[in-house]
Write the structure tokens for this entry.
Amino acid sequence: MNSHNDFSGFAGTQRRADPDLIDATIVPTQALPNCMGLVPTNGGELACRIVGKAGWACSIGVAQQHDIHRSSFASERAKVNCAGISCTLPAMKLYGTVTSPFVRRVRVVASELGIDVDRIDTTTDAGQLRLAKLNPIRKVPAAEIDGRTLFDSRVIIDWLTTTRGWGSLTPARDHWREQNLLNAIDGAVEAAISLFYLKRDGVAVDGTPYALRQNDRIASIFAWLSSELCTDQTSFRQAGDFGVPEISIICMMDWMDFRNTYATATAPALCALRNAWRARPSLTASMPTG
Ligand SMILES: N[C@@H](CCC(=O)N[C@@H](CS)C(=O)NCC(=O)O)C(=O)O
């Protein structure tokens, strides 16, 4: 596989797709140094700082993300040549395992966006040493990309979608609601992971008030998430929407099954969502193994 992504034509595609976006086009900073009057900057700075146009900052913020990132972008970008400029972006270094649901959701998003990933395996002593030097939190994933170090899967995903667009994913429709969904999903997986770690370290946690609280928390979250699905149960948003909340619940449930930490079958509606996307290549290629 290439170690670089070709981003030629990124801005041209966006402009053609929607003339209203002429002043609100997100570009990877390295990709279009001279195109359309953008000035060169240090690698890794946000596009808003390069363009410096009025309204840009709020455009890359929350409210208008869906206006900026077009899901047609990924399929169209290959066809368009923007002023003959061909640009490449380096692969993302991703620290993590092939079992972590948090690492997996970053891998899935990267795959959907066509971003190459160099994974540093943190199950080895050498990988752990590198992770400890990079990330004081000592959790995975962590990433090195565009001259930055980023901790936390959601932050890494935010960086990818902000600087590369949404690719084939459905962008955020209602940021605040979707943050609630993600916090709930993360709350469930963190509860399950805490029990998993204790058991793995030989602590007899089963049946303790602590374990009961964690399992109650997961049940409560599953019930709430089930009530948040759209009618055909393919998405938390509109029928057929596939993006970060949907990827996150699937990664969480697959991990729970893989580690046998929670009976996901007790939430049939969420299982229906997972089944709807089961054949998606980004998901099949990243199933937890080992
Ligand atoms: N909020 C973090 C959670 C990351 C996390 O908990 N990762 C687990 C692996 S699934 C980890 O690294 N645990 C190591 C530990 O707790 O020592 C994220 O979204 O990246």
User: Anything to note?
Assistant: Residues 1-88 have pLDDT under 50 and may be disordered. The radius of gyration is 20 Å. The chain has three domains: 4-88, 91-164, 175-284. The domain at 91-164 is CATH 3.40.30.10 (Glutaredoxin).
